[in-house]
TrEMBL record:
Record-annotated Histidine kinase domain positions: 337-539
PANTHER family: SENSOR HISTIDINE KINASE, SPORULATION KINASE A
Pfam families listed in its UniProt record: HATPase_c (PF02518), HisKA (PF00512), PAS_4 (PF08448)
Protein keywords: ATP-binding, Coiled coil, Kinase, Membrane, Nucleotide-binding, Phosphoprotein, Transferase, Transmembrane, Transmembrane helix, Two-component regulatory system
Transmembrane stretches, start-end: 7-23, 35-55, 67-93, 99-119, 131-151, 157-176
Species this protein is from: Cytobacillus firmus
Enzyme kind, highest EC tier: transferase
Protein's name according to its UniProt entry: histidine kinase
Reactions the enzyme catalyzes: ATP + protein L-histidine = ADP + protein N-phospho-L-histidine
InterPro entries linked: HATPase_C_sf (IPR036890), HATPase_dom (IPR003594), His_kinase_dom (IPR005467), HisK_dim/P_dom (IPR003661), HisK_dim/P_sf (IPR036097), PAC (IPR001610), PAS (IPR000014), PAS-assoc_C (IPR000700)
Listed EC numbers: 2.7.13.3
Molecular functions per Gene Ontology: ATP binding; phosphorelay sensor kinase activity
Residues annotated as domain PAC: 272-324
Residues forming coiled coils: 182-209
Length: 543
């Protein structure tokens, strides 16, 4: 019968402990610790109910109300513990006799539990519960059978009682722990969702309000995101663009390159910068510079490519303008030399024409070659000065160098400078914008000439580096460049000359970069400077 009473006690106890926990998981998730007064009160009510259904033996009532006291002390602290303890005691006193052992027993337990709580604050609640239960057992054994001589001859009775209280403690702490765990998981999940939401809205805010174009391309090459800025830049709505074929928006000359680039990013997981033109709804083309970043999925495969593109039309225009002004300044400087050069053959022609008049016909050949020279120089000057659409062509590097040298030789002659050309065998075919490459050589040779006030030799050599590239080198005997200035060459407006623009080398760098080449400098003060330009060679040869 006693066993049955205990089991009823235990079941009611578990039910009463779990009901508020379950309810709370629906309502609010305040930590248990913050609810000690309310918790103490509720635990007191449970103990009162437990006392109400306890069984009575010789004026003593038996129930597992102490299990709830142990749990309240370890989970809610002494404040709540005292409230529960007092409610439990009052209800106990109301329903049974033998007040003294009940009052003394509870007082001892409250004192002992408060002391234990003080020294076990750092421990986890489960451990604290175990210690409190141990303390409870000791106090119970000392007070009930030993001091108050209650059922001293029935150790089994006491054992049963202590075990049931223990069972109550175990069931109660299991319920509370699992509830706490659940709450921890839920709060963690909510916190993560919130951070995710916050960061998503932050990034969305950036993506939606930037003037850069942000696009995300998936593995199947479809566009899964296009920022609204596409609408301003291209005049089409993002949704409309999403359904368009890439070939339709991208300039036909660049579509193949673009596709190949994207392919490379997906396959080789490499970042890439690209330049391409996109079609505006009204039909004109806009130049964009785009940085493409691969994004790995869970299994290390590239799932997306994020493309951030920027309208560079204005920048291109400015660069074009710079290029043009530098070209014009060179043309201007050349004019004196050219005029001089034209005047010389003209004098010859004039002289010969006078002779011709007097019947000498052998001079025809000479006349023609002088006229051809005038023609060459003037055409070179004109083509250089005229702005032209950029058009990549196959060209012989040897020819470009020779033409440039021819253009500069009048001025070189005036300054006592000789050109020495030293070309290795071969055609040296490159794909280039002829005029631009010419402009590079012009500026480099002009710099060399300007550095050689006392005249001397400028050696221009051309060789193959056997790695699919050729090296054009310019060695002068000029003043040289101090070591500390070498890294600054190519910076805009960096010049050591009184009337220099400091744009020449910057433009050279830009042009050579566009041609996928590079420039290196070596220099010794007072001895001269060596400038080496590496450019990729074309494989095929002209027949
Ligand atoms: P600019 O010729 O208008 O000064 P550049 O960009 O062409 O501008 O050249 C920048 C500077 O680099 C020059 O002012 C000069 O000091 C230095 N430099 C370039 N080439 C040579 C060279 N071959 N020898 C000595 N100094 C040079
Ligand atoms: Mg210069």
């Amino acid at each position: 019968m006693i066993l049955l009473d205990y089991i009823v006690n235990l079941s009611i106890f578990s039910l009463l402990v779990s009901v508020p926990l379950i309810l709370r998981s629906f309502i609010s998730h305040k930590p248990l610790k913050d609810l000690h007064l309310l918790g103490g009160l509720y635990a007191g009510i449970i103990s009162a109910i437990l006392v109400g259904i306890s069984f009575k033996e010789q004026g003593y009532s038996y129930d597992i109300r102490y299990a709830i006291l142990i749990l309240v002390f370890s989970y809610l602290g002494p404040g709540a513990g005292f409230i529960t303890g007092i409610i439990a005691l009052v209800s106990r006193l109301v329903i049974s006799e033998n007040w003294l052992p009940a009052i003394i027993g509870l007082s001892l337990i409250l004192i002992a539990f408060t002391v234990v709580h003080r020294y076990s604050r750092h421990l986890k609640a489960v451990r604290k519960t175990a210690i409190l239960y141990g303390v409870y057992c000791v106090i119970y054994i000392i007070t009930v059978p030993i001091i108050f001589n209650v059922f001293r001859d029935s150790p089994i009775f006491h054992l049963q009682y202590i075990l049931f209280v223990g069972l109550g403690v175990i069931v109660g702490s299991l319920l509370i722990e699992s509830y706490e765990r659940l709450i921890r998981i839920i709060t963690e999940k909510k916190r993560m969702e919130k951070t995710l939401e916050e960061s998503e809205s932050k990034y969305r805010l950036i993506a939606e309000n930037t003037s850069d174009l942000i696009a995300v391309m998936d593995r199947d090459r479809s566009l899964s995101y296009l920022s609204p800025s596409h609408e301003f830049a291209l005049g089409c709505e993002a949704a409309e663009l999403q359904n368009m074929e890439v070939d339709f928006v991208i300039h036909p000359d660049e579509a193949e390159n673009f596709q190949a680039g994207i392919e490379r990013i997906f396959e080789n997981n490499e970042r890439m910068a690209m330049e391409f033109r996109l079609k505006h709804r009204e039909g004109h083309w806009i130049e964009f510079e785009s940085r493409c970043m691969p994004v790995e999925g869970e299994n290390g495969v590239i799932e997306h490519v994020v493309m951030i593109s920027r309208d560079i039309s204005e920048r291109k225009k400015a660069e074009e303008f710079l290029l043009q002004s530098e070209k014009l300044s060179i043309v201007g400087e050349l004019a004196a030399g050219v005029a001089h050069e034209i005047r010389n053959p003209l004098t010859t022609i004039k002289g010969f024409l006078q002779l011709y008049k007097s019947g000498n016909s052998q001079i025809n050949g000479l006349l023609l070659s002088e006229l051809a020279r005038i023609e060459n120089i003037t055409t070179e000057m004109l083509t250089l000065g005229k702005p032209q659409a950029i058009q990549m062509d196959t060209a012989k590097l040897t020819e470009i160098i020779e033409n440039t040298v021819e253009l500069l030789s009048p001025q070189a002659n005036m300054n006592g400078i000789q050109f020495k050309l030293n070309f290795a065998d071969g055609d040296f075919l490159i794909s280039c914008e002829k005029n631009q490459i010419k402009q590079v050589f012009l500026n480099i040779i002009k710099n060399a000439m300007e550095a050689m006030e006392k005249g001397g030799d400028i050696e221009i050599s051309l060789k193959d580096n056997n790695e699919g590239e050729c090296i054009v080198s310019f060695q002068d005997q000029g003043c040289g460049i101090p070591d500390e200035f070498l890294p600054r060459l190519g910076e805009p407006f960096y010049t050591l000359k009184e009337k220099g623009t400091g744009l020449g080398l910057m433009i050279c760098h830009k042009i050579i970069k566009q041609h996928h080449g590079s420039i290196v400098y070596q220099s010794k003060i007072g001895e001269g400077t060596l400038i080496e330009i590496t450019l990729p060679l074309l494989r095929q040869t002209i027949r």
